[in-house]
């Protein structure tokens, strides 16, 4: 088995790991049932996938010295209550379903997602005894994966459309920053990573399989040790001419006098007789 074959196997194994990891990606936001199923709202929910399987809680004291604990989950059972996206617990009292994730709305802005849980338990006296509703405003904050849950207010003074309002900061809803790497930088990084993988894989193969020692552990050592001479030979072949050189052709001088006559003979007719 050559070092090239080992490198190919390493690359294939790495790709399989990526595929397996991608196949195990969670899809817990599908537990949420949208009141109106639209691609835009479903995409807004998908942004909240990193926040699933986590319980966020906040304690709030009222003016009547009552203490309430609110528990919230993204498309999960908060407080162990089936379908309870947001649950209210009073000290010494029963748990109250504020919002049900089987009745969800999701509104996506530039750097925020508004999650609305409806179909909670009915009010006893307020808001025309309508069902409770929870609004969770999740805003972008790149410094934290998921900040603490904050209780903003409980609006129950209206005749209808009352709600509980909460805030949560998270980097999950932040817009993707454009890459600052050029194409050349990306190609350079790929080349460096590929060469590093080749060196490490080849070294392990030569040491563990072949049993090489010293500099012989370097993959394709014979080739790399001759790379300087090979480069010089290539440069010599391209840049220098080979074979016998021809002398430049120079024209021969042409005689201005006719051949076969001597100068004296040509001047004889000029003498007086």
TrEMBL record:
Query: Where would you find the membrane-spanning parts of this chain?
Result: 181-205
Which cell locations does it reside in? Endomembrane system; Lysosome membrane
Major place of residence = membrane
Q: Where is the MRH domain?
A: 30-176
**What membrane topology was assigned to this protein in its record?**
Single-pass type I membrane protein; Single-pass membrane protein
Positions of the UniProt region annotated as Disordered: 245-273
> Mind listing the UniProt keywords for this protein, alphabetically?
Disulfide bond, Glycoprotein, Lysosome, Membrane, Phosphoprotein, Receptor, Signal, Transmembrane, Transmembrane helix, Transport
**One GO term describing the cellular component:** endomembrane system
The record's annotation in InterPro entries points to: Man-6-P_rcpt, Man-6-P_rcpt_cation_dep, Man6P_isomerase_rcpt-bd_dom_sf, MRH_dom
Q: Which residues form the signal peptide?
A: 1-25
- Pfam families from the xrefs? Man-6-P_recep
Protein purpose:
Transport of phosphorylated lysosomal enzymes from the Golgi complex and the cell surface to lysosomes. Lysosomal enzymes bearing phosphomannosyl residues bind specifically to mannose-6-phosphate receptors in the Golgi apparatus and the resulting receptor-ligand complex is transported to an acidic prelyosomal compartment where the low pH mediates the dissociation of the complex.
Name of this protein: Cation-dependent mannose-6-phosphate receptor
According to its UniProt entry, this protein's organism is Coilia grayii
